[in-house]
Amino acid sequence: MTKRFLLLLATLFLTFHSPVRAAESHLAEPAFVTEMSHFNELEKAKGLDSIGERLAFRAKEQPFLLVATIIFLLAIVHTFFAIPITKRAHHVQHEHDAKIRRLKAAEGEAAVAGDMVSFKATALHFLGEVEAIFGIWVLVLIVAMFGYYDLNTVKAYFMGVNYTEPLFVIIIMALASTRPILRFAESCLSGFARIGKQTPAAWWLSIMIVAPLLGSFITEPGAMTIAAMLLAKKFYSLKPSPKFAYATLGLLFVNISVGGVLTNFAAPPVLMVAQKWGLTTFEMLLHYGDKAVFSIVVSSTIYYLFFRKELGQMASRAGDHDGDGKGDLIVKERRVPPFVIITHLAFMAWTVAFSHYPPLFIGGFLFFLAFSQATAHHQHDINLRGPILVGFFLGGLVIHGGLQGWWLAPIISSLKEWPLFIGSTILTSFNDNAAITFLASQVEGLSPHLKYAVLAGAVTGGGLTVIANAPNPAGQALLGRFFGDGVSPGKLMLGALIPTILVATCMMFFPDRGIDKMFEPVEGMEATHETSATAEPPTPEVKNLQPEHP
């Protein structure tokens, strides 16, 4: 199986600069992308000032953009029906199995696995797979785009979308879920858990506080993968209550979203504006990092105090492994040689360092697959199903998200500090937070406090839904099996609500007098002339959903 994946990835790697791709890249820019860049000047010429007038004008000029947004909203609504659809799929499958068994029994034969396949149940199960939903609606988007334009327009748009982030998440998830990396992460976190004698409470606090902060160095998707797998191994396998399960998942999503702001390269929403706004790691640590650390520690402590009784009950179920009379999560596992761990860490470092250069990090992953085969006796089987599904989810989100700038940009550019923070937090819940900050970076003349507000809002709202932050689908994919028929979007939002409010309080009420200096215009990157804070720039091209790198 690994060899087949190796061959597939090698084929994809070799096609990155193929003549076919080069030819496709010269397709004419889609009309709806070209016209979006002229909306602002046309609105000024017509004297359209209110958001309602501007949105109505844009929808009339480019009806396809309105259709694309409706399709995107339908995809979001679809996610709320994923669990009922999955339940229906299970019901249909059970009816089909019972029917086949009766027919086979009447014929005096035994039913085999192949007989139990139900097309209807399989189709319903696919429709209820959260990671597949946005990809499914991409098919609807293609049909709509083809109906309004032609095949070349469809190809031009899809060739212009930047798929770097989905590819990176696939590979960083695969690396972070390997046995050597998990053993290394577990040994690091056990140092903190030993303070509490490795009880479930100590391990829970260690995972919920330390792992998200590691996201500032190993990237948020890597931290999410490690934290989710450790939670699955040490807590969800103990069958906690649904309230604890959703609270932990919601808190994890929020902590991961804010835990990556200690540096300027690990959190997707920060990365989108770091170069344009000249944000350094020191500045992120000084103006966002302190608030992130405080909110993570306080939120985790509040949830610990609320669930301390259940964590104590888990200790009795976990058993006493060190003979001190208290339940703990000490597990003795086969040792992994240091050179294997160091090599895996080197592959992760390579992937993070070249996270914006697909040929380099995909090439590195091919070498990693070869190394993992040579050290198979120290490895788990590499399961790419989860990472590929998450990549599929993010790919669909990027495709849909690239067509939402026509309504997002006017809203972002018309708000003041507090409305912008609240709006950014809410919009993040329904659109990837990296898209929010990227669109904000295209608005010339934003004051330092408006820049601070939109970035703070984007990371604050990153845990409210699965689509709010790029690492969230990875967490759901790894922990979804512990939630029966699937993770409920409403219960997830409730689980994340308290820590989100706490993060918002820290981000907006902590005194910070260095914001003006932090967001000083970078020479050559922003306009030097005075511009109104509500002025809106040309809507960015779809192909620039990620920042440019040399």
From TrEMBL:
Pfam families (UniProt xref): Na_H_antiport_3
Signal peptide region: 1-22
Highest taxon, organism lineage: Bacteria
Record has Signal as a keyword: yes
Region (Disordered): 525-550
Protein keywords: Membrane, Signal, Transmembrane, Transmembrane helix
Residues passing through the membrane, by range: 64-85, 132-151, 163-182, 202-232, 244-265, 285-307, 388-408, 420-440, 452-472, 492-510
Protein name (record): Na+/H+ antiporter
Lineage: Bacteria, Pseudomonadati, Verrucomicrobiota, Verrucomicrobiia, Verrucomicrobiales
